UniProtKB/TrEMBL annotation, chain B:
GO BP field: transmembrane transport
Official protein name in the record: Carbohydrate ABC transporter permease
Regions that span the bilayer: 21-40, 82-104, 111-135, 147-169, 190-215, 249-270
Record key words, sorted: Cell membrane, Membrane, Transmembrane, Transmembrane helix, Transport
Gene3D superfamilies: MetI-like
Protein family (similarity comment): Belongs to the binding-protein-dependent transport system permease family.
Topology in membrane: Multi-pass membrane protein
PROSITE patterns, per database record: ABC_TM1
Broad class of where this protein is predominantly found: membrane
Subcellular location: Cell membrane
Length: 309, 285
């Protein structure tokens, strides 16, 4: 408040027009570097993708040629590979998201038990999260190798057979989910630990006095208090998960067949291997619109949930 | 504590705590194991990697590292990765922190809408940017240049930094710059002389995390570079995905270790800030 009165004073004291103008410019100049860079490398490419998606592309000069209307979109909708990639991405998300959320909050509850090593355990959980996804895909591929891999050796000791993790379509999807879960659950764990530590202790003490058991405490106190953070974590994780690319590329290459060919990998291959840039641009636009709409829905859902609790 | 009056309850609680501690430690070990196994395997000779049963004890050797580092492209890729990651990290921290400050503290008409737009860009699939960037870079002769990759990484780093730092700046007491502005400090003076110094830990951890994100990026590097500016993740994708000769596990683990170890050290150094930043970033959307 004090600033505003001071500023008003300043405005009166000096010539009227120049000072507000300069002030306006200084204010905006804080946003300028970000705006300029993002216009060039974010807004312009998106618009260009949109343009290419409605054009035929000249592969000689790599420029958009003539306007073809919805033709590329029509081709994409007739493309079986595209629908398969959408389905595969859906299956991956439907498994990975709930598993990571539940596991993340569960582990956070466990490692929040008070003892000397709590801080160390929490810090160590940071490690998988900073392993490059492409490295994660690679190491797991090595560990899951049917011939020399450690996992199948251990499974063999337990008499659990020799699953072909990367050769069987269903198992390959499971593999993708496992690797992604390994890499991303720690992220959920860290957010959840912070949230659990911030829970008000007195409410739980009051519940203890009333003789509430753990199940009641979990469902009537912990979960309702955590709802906003669960929802927020879900949205952040979702924004990362829809971008799934590196792990699939390193671990399965979309295979066997097209069993793990998630949409980003499919578009990448269509563009840079088959050089179908126009169609890939159309696919990218479809994915962009769908992601935005779903993100919007999740955000509205988050608001609603927060209001209810 | 009232629980003292209920000895049975108290005992159960203590047992529960023990179970939680041990389960937590076991899970931590389980999650760290793949990294441990990678580092361990990187010191093995090929004959120790391809064994049944897998060996835990062997004569450690640096042979894989030496033979792989001699191949020039790995050291050049290292230099490229460091250049691009620090370059894009620094550029993003400056642009992102200023914008984050503007959104948190300076009332500008229309800026809030722009801020929301920039935040929404987190939903843009990178492939929707990679395709046009490749085409434009190709046309302008900008492929395979460090600056192209640095700018490409800004697409996700600037919104990320802006988002985190906006939350951070909002948490600072307003009186700080109000006093400075009253004393005749310019807005830039208030920002650089007062806000930046006290935000240094937050800025530093955000910078480190941005560098890590850029360090690990694969898609843009794959699309926008081919030789001169190519990065380590591209090499790893190549090694892991070599379906012709079969993956070279030795090379994979050695290069993987070189990529992961520095990042882990940095992450652990700033872990307190990192965890706090992540938690706040997720909640103060």
């Amino acid at each position: 408040m004090a600033v505003e009165t001071a500023m008003k004073g300043a405005r009166k004291a000096r010539p009227r027009k120049t000072v507000p103008m300069i002030d306006w410019l200084t204010r905006w100049s804080f946003m300028m570097p970000a705006i300029v860079i993002l216009l060039a490398v974010l807004a312009y490419p998106i618009l260009y993708t949109l343009e290419i998606s409605f054009s035929s592309l000249d592969l000689g000069s790599f420029t958009a040629n003539e306007w073809v209307g919805w033709e590329n979109y029509g081709d994409v909708l007739k493309d079986r590979g595209f629908w398969n990639a959408m389905k595969v991405t859906g299956i991956y998300l439907a498994w990975a998201m709930p598993i990571q959320m539940i596991l993340g909050f569960g582990i956070a509850y466990l490692i929040n038990a008070e003892w000397k090593g709590r801080g160390v355990v929490r810090a160590l959980f940071l490690i998988p999260m900073v392993v490059a996804p492409v490295v994660a895909g690679g190491i797991w591929r090595m560990m899951l190798d049917p011939l020399w891999g450690l996992v199948n050796y251990l499974l063999g000791l337990l008499g659990l057979g020799n699953p072909d993790w990367l050769g069987n379509p269903t198992l390959a999807m499971a593999t993708l989910v496992i690797i992604d879960t390994w890499r991303w659950t720690p992220f959920v764990v860290l957010i959840a630990t912070a949230a659990l530590m911030a829970l008000p202790k007195d409410v739980f003490e009051a519940a203890d006095i009333d003789g509430a058991n753990w199940w009641t405490k979990l469902w009537s106190i912990t979960v309702p208090l955590l709802v906003p953070i669960i929802a927020a974590t879900f949205v952040v994780r979702w924004l990362g998960a829809v971008k799934m690319f590196d792990i699939a590329l390193a671990a399965t290459r979309g295979g066997p067949g097209d069993a793990t060919n998630v949409i980003n990998l499919y578009i990448y291959e269509q563009a840079f291997r088959s050089l179908r840039f126009a169609e890939s641009a159309a696919m990218a636009v479809i994915v962009l619109v769908m992601t935005m709409m779903l993100t919007g829905l999740f955000l509205i859902g988050t608001r609603k949930l927060e209001d209810n609790y | 504590m009232t629980a003292a009056t209920l000895p049975g309850y108290r005992k159960r609680k203590r047992v529960g705590r023990q179970v939680r501690i041990w389960a937590g430690v076991a899970l931590c070990v389980l999650f760290l194991f793949p990294v441990f196994w990678m580092v361990l395997s990187s010191f093995k000779l090929p004959r120790d990697i391809f064994t049944t049963p897998p060996v835990l004890f062997f004569d450690p050797t640096l042979e894989t590292y030496i033979s792989y580092m001699q191949r020039a492209d790995i050291s050049r890729r290292m230099v490229n990765t460091v250049t691009v990651a620090t370059g894009s990290g620094l550029l993003s921290i400056v642009a992102g922190a200023m914008a984050g400050y503007a959104l948190a503290r300076i009332r500008i008409k229309g800026a809030a809408t722009l801020g929301v737009l920039i935040l929404m860009s987190r939903g843009v699939p990178p492939i929707a940017l990679a395709v046009p960037m490749f085409l434009v870079a190709r046309k302008l002769g900008l492929t395979d240049k460090h600056i192209t990759l640095i700018l490409a990484y800004c697409t996700f780093l600037i919104p990320y930094v802006m988002w985190l730092m906006r939350g951070f700046f909002k948490g600072l007491p307003k009186e700080l710059e109000e006093a400075a502005l009253l004393d005749g400090c310019s807005r830039y003076g208030a920002f650089f002389k007062i806000i930046v110094p006290i935000s240094l830990p937050g800025l530093l951890s955000t910078l480190i995390f941005s560098v890590i994100l850029a360090w690990e990026e694969l898609l843009f590097a794959l699309v926008l570079t081919n030789r001169n500016a190519s990065t380590i993740p591209v090499a790893i994708a190549g090694i892991a995905g070599d379906t012709v000769n079969g993956a070279n596990w030795g090379a994979l683990t050695a290069v993987g270790t070189l990529t992961v170890v520095p990042v882990v050290i940095f992450a652990l150094l700033v872990q307190k800030w990192l965890i706090k930043g992540l938690a706040e970033g997720a909640t103060k959307g």
